[in-house]
UniProtKB/TrEMBL annotation, chains A, B:
It comes from the Bacteria. This is FadR/GntR family transcriptional regulator. Pfam families: FCD, GntR. Keywords: DNA-binding, Transcription, Transcription regulation. InterPro entries: GntR_C, TF_FadR/GntR_C, Tscrpt_reg_HTH_GntR, WH-like_DNA-bd_sf, WH_DNA-bd_sf. PANTHER family: GNTR FAMILY REGULATORY PROTEIN, TRANSCRIPTIONAL REGULATOR, GNTR FAMILY. Residues 15-85 form the HTH gntR-type domain. CDD domains: WHTH_GntR.
Length: 258, 258
DNA sequence: GCCAGTCGACTGGTCAGACCAGTTGAGTTC
DNA sequence: GAACTCAACTGGTCTGACCAGTCGACTGGC
């Protein structure tokens, strides 16, 4: 132990007051002492309890709020509301990564391929009857929308999102679903308009419905590898025309490798 | 269009002053106007430019800091430093999800299986000579550490992390690497001590080295599917004993399915 | 008795001004 | 030329104030 003197003295980072306050409150929230829906004391009350100034308390609350843990509303006599842990922060972080062009569109699609494939595979293995019913329900909804033309595109993609959420929940892995959702939002932000303008929406919707039916069939049959491959194929077909040309063939290879 | 009156009026959320400030600065950072390493004006200078009070500026800076975009140091005459987009925020969000038991350890490992498998597969297809050299280098470093007992565990896992980062960079998909890293940090946070206490570190290191050698061989040979499966196997072997019993067999199934 | 309106006691959001401890670099001293 | 001093910064914190919004209790008229 004495030989490893790199661990004896570590660089000391002064801990700011607002950090201590934020950590204490965050700890209470994560530990469950402050369940979602409960209220924090008023700011001026927190000032008394923590023995710091109001600006310090406010900076701490700001940090928690930007992390999506609490929400405050002016004039609310009950104090800030505890929201609990939400995935919004996650998708926010992913969104930043894409907007700063750390990640390209091709990388996003490829990333989502991996996530969706794993979700589908797990869902095929673990699904319950209720999960299947919810997926069927969304497909039915898509079918009823497919004739309405471009106006219903918004409702259609909502049904699509719900279908994928049903798969994610059936997979039993919340992380997969959350990340896939975040990436999906990031992708939509980048190319939604492009697709809406270029594509023949009716034909696109019908092909999309066909894909979803295939995936549902594979999941129902318990064929995980097939469901995974179908998920990749669908993403490739949707987005291949819109990614950067140099990554296009790589995406195709991602489908074939499985 | 007129039929879809849900989009005509949207709920209005008053935008706080500190939000506007934070958004403006964040926009400049993400757009590249403020590259990493550059400096923000001093707080009192921002007060003048934005025409708001210092507390407002400070709350905005606090939000950006908690998002990992900037870092400020007391007494620094250059002002806050722009850090650029980093995955720290991502791993922080993942850590919160696990600590609040929204996501279990098993889900984390399963998630990382999907990411690592995809990274390995892509790396096998796209690697350059420099990537292979860096992987070899880290394996050599692990070998030199494997005899030193528990004291060098820290350095060993650092080499391990660098090995995986080399794979991620070889894969050409930054998102995969960043997420894998975030998940890895979250996992480490949960069970690092457990592993350090329970396991025979020397034997564990040697098995780990053997795994890494196999993965490197598969990548060098360009065998993507094999590299992917090896990645899953390695994770299963490392963590299977530490995840919740009810998810253990599911992890094993994740390996076999591929 | 009930309902509408008023009013005051809160809330969070913002601002101004002050002080502190730390950093830095220019000037001073030896 | 090296060491020291010091003033001009920085960010971190506190105080006290004001505003607009919210809400509950009180009060008026019916």
């Amino acid at each position: 132990m004495a030989a490893d003197d790199t661990d004896l003295f570590r660089p000391v980072t002064p801990v700011r007051a607002y950090q201590r306050v934020a950590e204490q409150i965050e700890e209470r929230i994560l530990s469950g002492d402050l369940p979602p829906g409960s209220r924090l004391p008023a700011e001026r009350e927190l000032v008394n309890r923590f023995g710091v100034g109001r600006s310090t308390v406010r900076e701490a609350l700001r940090v928690l709020q930007s992390a999506g843990l609490i929400r405050s509303r002016p004039g609310d006599p009950l104090g800030a509301e505890v929201l609990g842990v939400s995935p919004d922060n996650l998708s926010q972080a992913l969104g930043r990564l894409t907007r700063s062009s750390v990640a390209t569109l091709g990388e996003l699609v490829q990333f989502r391929m991996a996530l969706d494939a794993e979700s589908n595979r797990l869902a095929a293995r673990l699904h319950g009857d209720a999960d299947l019913a919810r997926m069927r329900e969304q497909i039915t909804r898509m079918e009823s929308l497919s004739g309405s033309g471009p106006a219903s595109l918004h409702a259609f993609s909502e049904a699509d999102a719900l279908f994928h959420r049903a798969i994610a929940e059936a997979s039993g892995n919340s992380l997969l679903g959350l990340c896939a959702r975040a990436v999906h939002e990031a992708v939509v932000e980048v190319i939604e308009k492009k697709i809406a303008g270029v594509t023949d929406t009716t034909a696109w919707m019908e092909r999309s419905i066909a894909h979803h039916r295939e995936v549902l069939a594979a999941i129902t049959a318990g064929d995980g590898p097939l469901a995974a491959r179908l998920g990749r194929t669908a993403l490739h077909e949707y987005y291949a025309d819109h990614v950067e040309p140099e990554t296009r063939e790589l995406l195709a290879a991602s489908v074939e490798d499985h």
